[in-house]
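Co-fold these.
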Amino acid sequence: MDLKQVAKDTTKFLSSYLTYQAVRIVISQLSETNPPLAIWLSNFSATGKIQDGEVYIQELIEVDQPLAFRIMIVRAHLADEVTEFLPEMTIAAIAQANMQHRVHYLERVTQFNLSPESSDPDSI
Amino acid sequence: MDLKQVAKDTTKFLSSYLTYQAVRIVISQLSETNPPLAIWLSNFSATGKIQDGEVYIQELIEVDQPLAFRIMIVRAHLADEVTEFLPEMTIAAIAQANMQHRVHYLERVTQFNLSPESSDPDSI
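Predicted complex below.
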């Protein structure tokens, strides 16, 4: 299990995801201040190229540099403000989801083993 | 900018991504100990349903509960071991990428402004 590589891959993935969130925020801001540009950016971002945040930013710089720089500032802000909470939140979310899956499974198996002779819950 | 919502969405996303990484690790382990099962899990995981980690685990429990529980243990382990490094790594990665985009843009603009009268670097 190459944890170092997983950490590197996850960082790249997270960086692209925060770029996507930054784009959403900028589109939302533009929809109030400059609706035509919001629509343009929304169309530009809908082609799937946002899968790789760096390719996306690079291509946006070519056509609208101020907008690209604005998204870069927002994603850096998101990284500063949001990532510190992620370890605790993710560990808790996975622990909780794992527990729910186990409980759900146990309930199902218990139900299965009890039936058909005691399918009526009142008879248990 | 609803940072709380961004943090929640990112946590869900990260949790699904670590599930995907856990599946990759388990497939890699199985390819040495139980190749047919590795192929089966690889096919099962290739249908796009892994986009949502919880739906994926739920469906896998229905058909192979021990395998699903194994992936759940691995993803909890990844969350414990990997997430603590993510804030620092992601902030650094975005800061570095942003700087590279700015430098690249400035180089391009400078190049553009200098040419055509001084396209030969030696003449600068």
